[in-house]
Design goal:
This protein is α/β, with parallel strands linked by helices and 425 residues long. Helices cover 52% and strands 13% of the residues. The strands form 2 sheets. A 6-stranded parallel beta sheet has the order 7-6-5-8-9-10. A 4-stranded antiparallel beta sheet has the order 2-3-1-4, sandwiched between helices. Helix 7 runs parallel beside helix 8 and helix 7 packs across helix 11.
Length: 425
């Protein structure tokens, strides 16, 4: 089987296109079930974040699986002018490396962010629950998690935390000069809002309001720093009294529209309002940015700020890439030796069976032999078999070609290793 990865990300698709690939939990499960039912797909995991949708699969027929998976992904967007070139794919060693880069944060919009690790672990658990996770993907994802841990320990890639929410706070701080004595409103109570809450507090924001459809979640989040909870039906009324608004809800339609924000600006006498929309789909209508003294930034806008805060991480990323290349080579070698084990075991078994039968004949012909003499003959024949197998097995283990190719196939054919009954002859 071969590892393949097929998907889209912020590197190939703009925000508008990524919104079309943003699937609800229910649709993710439906897609995962469909993918796992494909004839060429043996195992699969679906990784879905605000910046990527990727399918990790082990396939029995690589080309066929790539085609089948791409067909599934092409059916997701509702755009008439959808360009299928945004869908990329990796196989073999390139796939191993890509997965390691993703889980380590080296392929993220914010270089080195560690939120992707927890997201991939959640995707792993979902595949496990749905029964689409097999032995090969289990082994690969466990290696991914270990590689991510190694990168964190051996480099300074994550020494200066920079997540999307943190970049958003830095941007707000840049606009206002300081967040001290500033008031903020968080719309949403998920992971992104939790990160934004902690970052706002660390930057000295004096008062934070939280509003969410599920008020219990809002209360639980607010309890972390004694923030104030605003009923979701009343959040528009808070716009006139805050300086910063961060939206991260799961709404499928904009919840902050031009007219509502325009009315709030009148009440606040056009005092500057900073809005950061880190939701996907977007929570804020694009036209809001055209209003006087309103500053609206979305996920794509954050990339511009990210570039200014990643110089140190880029240096560490070079070290991390070298570690990943080494880890890929190790993983490929382990997989190669694992796949060779049955062939090596059968070849060794066949030689030893021949040795034992001929040894039995020899002992009868030379009888009577003492126990010591029999042991010496046995040891001698065992040494002969080991020496005869040494060179072919060494070539088999060190050959750089794929283990299923030339030398392994030759050994199987020459010694009829696929014929189980021949082992007894």
């Amino acid at each position: 089987m071969s590892l393949i990865i097929v998907g889209i990300s912020h590197k190939t698709a703009n925000l508008a296109l990524r919104e079309q690939f943003a699937l609800s939990d229910e649709r993710q499960i439906q897609l995962l079930q469909r993918l796992s039912s494909l004839s060429a797909v043996e195992e699969c995991v679906l990784v879905s974040t605000c910046n990527r949708l990727e399918v990790y699969a082990f396939a029995s027929a690589e080309d066929k699986a790539l085609q089948q998976i791409k067909i599934c992904l092409k059916e997701i967007p509702n755009s008439a002018d959808f360009d299928e070139d945004i869908i990329y794919s990796f196989n073999q060693g390139d796939a191993f490396l890509h997965g390691f880069r993703v889980v380590s944060g080296l392929d993220s919009m914010v270089l080195g962010e560690n939120q992707i690790l927890s997201q991939m672990k959640e995707s792993f658990r979902q595949a496990e629950q749905e029964g689409s996770l097999g032995t090969s993907l289990n082994k690969y994802f466990q290696r991914c998690f270990n590689v991510s841990k190694k990168i964190r320990h051996e480099t300074q890639l994550g020494a200066h935390p920079v997540s999307v929410s943190y970049v958003a706070i830095l941007l707000a701080k840049k606009i206002f000069g300081s967040l001290e004595n500033r008031k903020a409103l968080l719309l949403g109570a998920g992971k992104m809002s939790e990160l934004a809450l902690q970052n706002l507090k660390s930057q000295g924001c004096s008062e934070i309001l939280i509003s969410n459809r599920n008020i219990e979640k809002a209360k639980a989040l607010a309890s972390q720093i004694a923030a104030q909870v605003v009923p979701f039906e009343d959040y528009l009324g808070s716009l006139s009294e805050v300086d910063v608004v961060i939206t991260s809800t799961g709404a499928q339609e904009p919840i902050l529209k031009v007219q509502a924000v325009q009315e709030s600006m009148k009440l606040r006498k056009n005092k500057a309002l900073f809005i950061i929309d880190i939701a996907l789909p977007r929570n804020v209508e694009e036209g809001v940015n055209d209003l006087y003294n309103v500053y609206l930034y979305n996920l794509d806008d954050l990339q511009k700020v990210v570039d200014q805060n990643l110089k140190e991480r880029q240096k560490e990323a070079l070290k991390a890439e070298q570690i990943l290349i080494h880890e890929v080579q190790l993983f490929k070698e382990e997989e190669k030796h694992r796949s060779l084990s049955p062939t090596i075991a059968k070849l060794t078994q066949k030689f030893n069976q021949i040795r034992e039968k001929e040894l039995e004949k020899l002992v009868l012909q030379l009888a009577p032999l003492s126990s010591e003499q029999q042991q010496k003959i046995r040891a001698c024949t065992q040494a002969m078999v080991s020496k005869m197998l040494h060179d072919p097995l060494l070539v088999l283990k060190t050959e750089q070609q794929e283990p299923s190719s030339l030398y392994q196939d030759i050994l199987k054919k020459l010694f009829r290793l696929e014929d189980e009954s021949d082992l007894d002859n």
